[in-house]
Amino acid sequence: MNIKIVGALAAVALLAACSSDDKTAATTAPTGVTSGPVPGSQEDLVANVGDRVFYDLDKSALKAEGKATLDRQAAWLAKWAKNNVQVAGNCDERGTSEYNIALGNRRAKASRDYLVAKGVAASRISTISYGKDRPVALGSNEQAWAQNRNAITSVK
């Protein structure tokens, strides 16, 4: 008999502990909480500036849209002077691995050189080429290939 009473009391205590009071939750919520990316983070760079520059087939020359993105990146990097970045050059799936590694390297360096010309210290920017090994879009069509011909800036 005692076990049944203890069990019933334990169940009542458990239910009482699990109940919620919406008024309490509303009054204890933190104030000043903002949504969105943390300023100066990779997510901030992606959402508010843009992290990628796109290239034409077999080219490493910057286009006007790419320069505009890099201008925003340079301004962002000036604001967040503690951040270092890596620029990764990428290619579409066509061509040999060796060719695409070299082309990805030229794309990454073109983006880096532009940022340096805009006042970002070269010591804050590293480059790497992934060639065709890290596609962002799957598929063997022009739409996918265009997305994969890029240089992506990442906060390090």
Tell me what the structure shows.
By secondary structure, this protein is an alpha+beta fold. The protein has one domain (42-155): OmpA-like domain (60s Ribosomal Protein L30, Chain: A, 2-Layer Sandwich), CATH 3.30.1330.60. Helices cover 48% and strands 14% of the residues. It contains six helices and four strands. It has helices spanning 2-18, 22-28, 42-48, 64-79, 97-117, 142-148, and strands spanning 52-54, 85-90, 125-131, 150-155. It has a four-stranded mixed beta sheet. Strand 2 (85-90), helix 5 and strand 3 (125-131) form a beta-alpha-beta unit. Helix 4 (64-79) crosses helix 5. 26% of the residues are buried.
The helix-strand sequence is HHHEHEHEHE
- CATH homology group: OmpA-like domain
Rg measurement, Å = 26 Å
Strand order of the largest sheet: 1-4-2-3
Average of pLDDT: 87
Helical content, roughly? 40-55%
Uncertain stretches of 5 or more adjacent residues: 20-29
Strand content: 5-15%
Which class of secondary structure composition applies to the elements?
Answer: alpha+beta
The CATH first-level class comes to: Alpha Beta
Largest sheet: 4 strands, mixed
Q: What's the architecture, going by CATH?
A: 2-Layer Sandwich
Cα(first) to Cα(last) distance is 65 Å
**Helix count?**
6
Number of domains: 1
Shape descriptor:
globular
Number of strands: 4
